[in-house]
Amino acid sequence: MVSIRHVYIEGTRSTPEVDFDPELHVLSIRGQSYPENAFAFYEPLLKWLDEYLADLNAESTVEIELQLPYINTTSTKCFLMMLEKLDEAFKQGKQVGVRWLYDEDNESELECAEEFKEDLLLPFRILPKTAE
Amino acid sequence: MAKSSKDYEAFGEELQTLYAARQELQEAEYAGNALRPGYERLSARYEKLLREMNKVLRISDSQSLALLRMESELSVLLDNAMQGFLTVDRTLKVQKPYSAECRRIFGGKIGGASVTELMWPDDPDTRAKVERLMERMLSAQADESEVRYSDGLPNSFQRGGLRIRIDYKRIAMPEGTGDDPRIMLILTDITEQYKSKEQLEFLSTHDPLTGMFNRNYVEKWISDFGPGSPRPVSLIMADMNGLKLVNDVFGHLNGDQLLTRAGGIIRQTFGESAVCARWGGDEFLVLLPGADAEACAERIRRLREAFESADAAPIPISMAIGCATLADPGREEWGPLFQQAEKEMYKTKLLESRAIRKKLIAEITEAMYARGIEDRSHVSRLTALAEGLALRIGISPESPAMSTLALLAGLHDVGNIAIPQEVYRHDGPLAADQWDIVRTHSEIGYRLAFSLGEPALAEAILSVHENWDGSGYPYGLRGEQIPELSRLMAVVDAFDAMTHDRPHRPAMTRESALAEIRLGAGSKFDPRLAEVFAAWMSEPFVET
Questions:
Q1: Cα A47 from chain centroid?
Q2: Tens digit of pLDDT for each residue in A46-99?
Q3: Most Cβ neighbours (<10 Å): which of B49, B219, B259, B538?
Q4: Which helix (H) or strand (E) holds B444?
Q5: pLDDT digits (tens, 9 = 90+) for B369-388
Q6: pLDDT of residue B66
Q7: Which domain holds residue A17?
């Protein structure tokens, strides 16, 4: 089996910082997301996630950390796809969860997080950033 | 599947289609249909798509609302920041939005206007320079050194009476927006601060009372006008006569007005090319670049003429003047020059002092006549009576006391000159506070005589209204505590007043008046003087 590589993408004004570390099982996406072509940005990450989740054994625990102060509509669709993949893995018995950090000063962040959480079965913690 | 009908209300038709498809799938007639599995997948995916779409829309709506709120909060912040914020792109035209303060500064909407045209409409050179520098700022890479004020960017402009400070900042636009960098201009209204600064600068070089230059300015001017500077240059020093008298008698407000008027006349006479300064309390200084001794003397002559033709309010303006001229460009002689001018000024002051005092007394006496405080016939009668009584009590005709008495006859009520007309001319009984004012006239008269260099006269004026028994004013002196000349004047003044018509009562007969004098002996009047006077007046052939 080909080992999955570590993905690190530095954040920019329009794209979040991405850190997917398969060794440490640390996955995080932090920052605003409004790239011109969101699908082009997220598609490789979704593929990576497919491979990672397929590879993930039942003993490993992974909690993806999301901090998304603003995301555009296409990015929203991509995140729905990402969360669905994680939820599927959870349904298959893998120890997968979400930790969503929001800024208390930005009302919409909490609302969006709750919107994303709806209909999902996996553990989904929504925490204010100050709690971290 | 719906959380609430409201959630899907934008998808009514899609939901109906979905429900219809699901019902069709339930119908027995399609049970074996080969298309059924595909139809099922399609309807399942359609349902998922609807759910996702609904979710995406709600998230998007929530974020739009948050952005809108943030935008409005930001604009409230900017509009209330009391600073103008605007940006320009490569066209150097004002981009929207800009803050409300910009509309106030420029008097209207400015979107799309050339920023340099707005700030320097009448200055094409500045416009061209600023445009060049702004273009350089915009084309610079982030790591290149910034364009600064020292490169020639103006830090302020004026418009509609306002003075506005400008701060420039190059800003990179958010990635992905495809926008070029912009320059943000932050405009701050510094009109008030500028005025205060101007005021401070003015006060550091000017005398606040007269608006003339001050000593500080003159000293700087002299140091800039050192050896090698163009010559000749003349220096005039002038010391005002009678300022102390005006301050003491008429109050400092009148003294200040006299100084201001004198300063105005000096500035008007010497014009813009001269440095006219208030050098000290009552001293003025004028520097005349280009004027030799002859030109200087001519200018002084014109100054004297101007003083003479000015109003005497409250006294005529006159000054002791000294001057000196520097003629040699190669030599630094400011110190001796000042000494020379000053020496001449003090010499003039000393020489003229008697004449000036005499003139001032004459002016004041005239002013008393003009204002009806005193009348000539009363003064001439008093002078005759006072001198006659003085001779009878042994004061010699050539003595200083006799000279003082002559002055006292004319000036015993001189303090009234500073009493407000409405109090002085008040008909009927005076109110307590008006009495207090009237009673101050003795002290004002004292100060006036003292300022004129007549201390004995001053003492006599001060006590003219004291009574022998201590019931008079201002200090309630009694007996011989009261100067003899004051006691003497009290007797003759009372007699003359009683024997002549007054607005509120007719004249008494000579006999009745003398009876009053005798009656007052020992209480109001010095008994000895009253007796000598009454005896004299009772002699046959004494005319008054």
A1: 13
A2: 999 999 999 998 889 999 999 998 899 999 999 999 999 999 999 999 999 999
A3: B259
A4: helix B441-451
A5: 887 888 888 899 999 999 99
A6: 87
A7: 7-131
Taking an 8 Å cut-off on Cβ atoms, the answer to whether B63 and A118 are in contact is no
Place of tokens 């009391």: B82
Note whether residue A12 is domain-resident: yes
pLDDT in tens, B331-374: 667 888 899 999 999 998 888 888 888 888 888 888 888 878 88
Domain contains A1 = no
Element (H, E) at B320: strand B319-326
ipTM (interface pTM): 0.87
What angle (nearest 5°) sits at the alpha carbon of residue B329, between those of residues B327 and B335?
70
Contact residues for B215 (Cβ-Cβ < 8 A; gap 6+): B277, B279, B280
Hey, are the CB atoms on A76 and B3 less than 8 Å from each other?
A: no
CB of B4 within 8 Å of any CB in chain A?
no
A80 CB within 8 Å of a chain B CB: yes
Instruction: List, in sequence order, every beta strand (DSSP E) within chain A.
Output: 7-9, 17-21, 26-30, 61-67, 95-102, 124-128
Does a structural domain hold residue A104? yes
Pairing of β A17-21 and β A7-9: antiparallel
Are residues A70 and B62, on separate chains, in Cβ contact within 8 Å?
A: no
CATH code for position A56: 3.30.750.24
Residue A88 identity (one-letter amino acid): E
